[in-house]
Amino acid sequence: MDKENKLIPGLPSGFEDRWDKKLLLKKKLLKAIEKNFIKFGAVALETPSFEISENIGSFLAEDEANPMSDVFSFQDGEKNITLRYDLSSPLARFVAQNNQELPSIFKRYAIQNVFRNEKAGNGRYREFMQADFDIVGNVNPAQANAELCNLISSTLLDCGLKKDQFSINISNRKIVQGLIDDLEISEDKQLKVIRAIDKLDKPGFSLKGVEDLLKKERKDKSGAITKGADLNDEQVSQILNFLKIKDLKELKETLKNPLSQEGINELEQVFEVLGYGSNLNQVKSNFTIVRGLAYYSDFIVETNLNFKVTNNKGKEVDIGSVCSGGAYAKLISRFKGVDIPGTGISFGVDRLLFALIQLDQIKVDSQKPVLVCVMDEKYLKNYYEILDLLRNNNINAEIFLDTKKNLGKQLTLANKRELDIAIICGENEFKENTVTIKNLKGVKGENNKTFPKANLIDEVKKLI
Fold first, then answer.
1. In contact, 291 and 326? CB cutoff 8 Å
2. Which CATH entry fits the domain spanning 20-359: 1.10.645.10, 3.30.930.10, 3.30.460.10, 3.30.450.40?
3. Which of 268, 343, 380, 396 yields a CA-CA distance of 20 to 30 A from 81?
4. pTM here?
5. Residue 85 has what DSSP assignment?
6. What is the per-residue pLDDT across 264-310, written as a single tens digit (0 to 9) for each?
């Protein structure tokens, strides 16, 4: 291939390579998340990356004319297939397909990548990992939903966050739905209204932005226009007044619609159950969250971080919720012969990682290897004996893989990789059955130590 036609390495927008410290932190987060999922009683489930398009449904897109615009879909013979965009829709299909074999209350967790064909940036990706926990079955909703809040708190604390660094916000969609019913908003406009309300706490939005979306249209800073719900002035005014209410008691006195009252009572019951445990102060009501996905029916939750996060240009950004979810009464009942409610949460693992890598308060064990340097090719067998001794004692170790490189170049590589220890043995060491350790993080001139080979393991363990 000539120079002009050589490929330029790069990735599509919204995709990312992860390695070294970032990947080590991600694995630590995943370990903490999975540990909590199991601790709270769930079993693991893995579903394929692709689902039949009609089974997975189209719950993301705001463009009614192109309901699959936010997902990656492909023709597969006579059927369309779609890369999963969340883990809830595949769960619904799995439960419907296997409900006779499952327990009456089924707790499952899944940790897998999902794919969304949407604008990327600021901790938002087009391929990212989600970690989901769901409870499917006829249960006491207050208990199940309080348990989700307890799980969120326990997991984020185990991930290394402090209690004041995150907030768990909960609400109930029946509250807003009752208001919508009272205002006689037509069914074709209702989802637009719900999504407009849900934008209030999102980046770049204010009460005025929500008002524009409730009216005819909203124009953002770039000049892009989003079609609004086209409500009348009285309907808009009532919704904006509702959004200004922050207190559950005030809300109960203000909204008299029976469905709204039902949602408020259900929310009070969640707080009552939370009061039996230790996480009540971690959870607060927020009536502006309604979750844009259409399949949520009542309880909803969003978890936000309480510290600043910046993009790669150093500009402060709002990355949104790091754990969200809610209850869905009809998601599974879309399938024939099945009518089972469920409730669940989803951690955005890569979004959480994006924030925590900046916080730099969570330490990870890098598990870097000890480097066995090769001073003389004729002693290669001896170097491998040292290598085996280290590995057999559960010490990560590697041997330098080029017998032609001098010691200086071997140590240059070790320093570039930020290794801690190098084993340096020449003719004298092998004659006297000793080993020399170089502490690569030690003070120059004082960082070499020679001792009997029998003490190797103990001496290495002092430095790792």
1. yes
2. 3.30.930.10
3. 343
4. 0.85
5. S
6. 999 999 999 999 999 999 999 998 888 767 788 999 999 999 988 88
